[in-house]
Amino acid sequence: MLERQPVPPPEPLCASNALLERGQAFSWDVTQWGRPVRAFALRYDGRVVAYLNRCVHVPTEMDWQPDEFLDMDKRWILCSIHGAHYEPDTGRCAAGPCGRGQLTPIATQERDGQVWWVPTSDIRPVEFDAPAPAADGASDGPR
Ligand code: FES
Question: Among the atoms of ligand 1, which is closest to the Cα of residue 60?
Fold first, then answer.
């Protein structure tokens, strides 16, 4: 029987002032069901929203430049591949080939000038392995 891992606590993401209103997003790595996925957060109507960076139409990353997700009018999250439009505040598809789909949301919190994201049992922080031990005879510094 598989043992369920406890859900990790909220993770610090970035400083609040790193997310300007309808500005560039902050992207980071998470895992969904143990597989690596990019995620992004941006500020829209004053609130921080976050989603997996994966289009509903074809499961690919959507930003048209690194950390640029909004269209020219700063109204929609726009997929750069085939132009799907998503509502920034809900992630719901509004137009284009995303049908009745919705981006996968990630809960966020903001307090004391810091943005946090909230892991779930499915979407978790990337776990980094402990550093590999030095090989025999390897040096810690210059010789
Ligand atoms: S992959 Fe996003 S609209 Fe086609």
Answer: 1
Encode 29-67 in three state secondary structure: EEEECCEEEEEEEEEECCEEEEEECCCCCCCCCCCCECC
| Of the candidates 126, 115, 129, the residue with the CA atom closest to the CA atom of residue 32 | 126
Supply the pTM of this predicted model. 0.88
Distance 100 CA to ligand 1 centre (A): 13
Q: What is the pLDDT along the chain (143 residues), one digit of tens a residue?
A: 557 788 999 999 999 999 999 999 999 999 999 999 999 999 999 999 999 999 999 999 999 999 999 999 999 999 999 999 999 999 999 999 999 999 999 999 999 999 999 999 999 999 887 566 665 544 444 44
CATH 2.102.10.10, applies to 11-123: yes
What is the distance between the alpha carbons of residues 32 and 17, in angstroms, rounded to a whole number? 27
Q: 103 C-alpha to center of ligand 1: Å?
A: 12
CA 8 / ligand 1 centre spacing (Å): 31
Tell me how far apart the alpha carbons of residues 1 and 119 are, in angstroms, rounded to a whole number.
Answer: 23
